[in-house]
Design a protein that fits this description.
Layout lengths: L1 H9 L3 H8 L3 H12 L2 H17 L10 H18 L18 E2 L35 H8 L3 H12 L4 H8 L3 H18 L14 H16 L2 H6 L1 E9 L2 E6 L1 H15 L4 E7 L2 E10 L4 E13 L2 E8 L13 E3 L1
Parallel strand pairs: 2-7
Antiparallel strand pairs: 1-3, 2-3, 4-5, 5-6, 6-7, 6-8
Helix pairs in contact: 1-2, 3-4, 3-5, 4-5, 6-9, 7-9, 8-9
């Protein structure tokens, strides 16, 4: 079947090419997102990958599967994008914020809509995989990935997420097996240093009653503008981060001061619309503007849960991702 499709595609049959590649489009999108941390860039990179595959069909010798061939093209396209400094923000907007717990290196990152994960084809992970599909899309993992050098990022995703063998990863990257092994060791050590330790309570199961209850209480407190209630739902060592802003806040006192400062700056409580991002509860946040009779999109908030508490709040001020979540730009008030 694949051979027949290849013959037809090589003769210029675009429908045959679509049959070959379309089953892999969604997983390629997730792969590019893991590599570059941007939903929008991932979309562009998938298009570039498919265009390169169409133009390079004659060079596909069939020594690997079509899926692996597409992953090779996509990975190298992502590496090229990561080497392009122009795709990263050159300067961060100066914001008058309370003194943070720490200043971290800026990380360019967008949340990933769960609705784009719903139709992923079932693919058994390769023999070398270390991470489950859900774990490898969570914000903590994606954030840590973005702090690795591009080649380390590529090697770790190919080996530990997709489960390709060393020889396969080396062929995809045009590298040696020795180089891949060495790069993987460094990537694993760096990733371990960046990923926060797992909480003791364990995250509630997605869509479970426990998760809905905690997310609902958080949303209610947000819409009331009740900072003490929000802080009361946090673990003692919870973090608030705002990629790509460098300011990060940890603990009840620091987070409480930050939330109060933001509430005063906004002048009104946010309205929130539940959604999901990176396999986690999330909210589209809107700021009411009474004279206009609407609430305007202000940002997207993603919660990391630990037992019956929130261990991290990640705030994304970039509202350009709202359409990917099916969220409107404004709400009636």
């Amino acid at each position: 079947m694949t051979e027949d499709l290849l013959v037809r595609a090589r003769s210029g049959d675009q429908d045959a090419f679509g049959e070959l590649t379309e089953p892999h489009r969604r997983e390629l999108h997730v792969h590019c997102y893991r590599m570059v941390g941007s939903v929008q860039d991932a979309e562009d990179l998938v298009q570039e990958t498919l265009l390169a595959a169409w133009r390079g069909l004659d060079g596909f010798a069939g020594r690997s599967s079509v899926r692996s061939w597409l992953y090779r093209i996509a990975t190298n396209r992502c590496l090229n994008a990561l080497r392009d400094a122009s795709r990263r923000p050159q300067a961060l907007a100066a914001a008058a914020l309370p003194e943070p717990t720490r200043h971290a290196d800026p990380v360019w990152l967008q949340p990933y809509p769960d609705m784009l994960l719903d139709d992923l084809p079932e693919q058994a992970p390769g023999p070398e995989s270390r991470y489950e599909a859900r774990e490898s899309i969570e914000l903590a993992f994606i954030t840590a990935l973005q702090q690795l050098p591009p080649k380390q990022r590529a090697v770790l995703v190919l080996r530990d997420v997709l489960g390709y063998r060393t020889a396969e990863a080396a062929a995809m990257l045009g590298s040696s097996e020795i180089s891949v092994k060495s790069t993987l060791q460094r990537a694993r050590a760096a990733l371990h240093a960046h990923v926060p330790p797992a909480g003791h309570g364990g995250a509630p199961a997605p869509y479970s009653a426990r998760e809905r209850d905690l997310a609902g209480r958080f949303a209610d407190a947000m819409e009331r503008g009740d900072t003490p209630a929000i802080v009361g739902l946090l673990t003692a060592d919870a973090w608030v981060t705002m990629p790509p802003e460098p300011q990060q806040y940890q603990g009840h006192a620091a987070i409480g001061a930050f939330l109060e400062d933001r509430a005063v700056s906004r002048g009104a409580p946010l309205r929130v619309v539940p959604t999901r991002a990176n396999g986690q509860p999330a909210f589209g946040c809107y700021l009411p503007t009474p004279p206009a009779g609407i609430a305007r999109a202000r940002g997207l908030m993603v919660l990391t849960l630990d037992g019956d508490r929130v261990s991290a709040i990640t705030w994304f001020a970039d509202t350009s991702v709202f359409p990917y979540f099916g969220l409107p730009r404004t709400l009636p008030t």
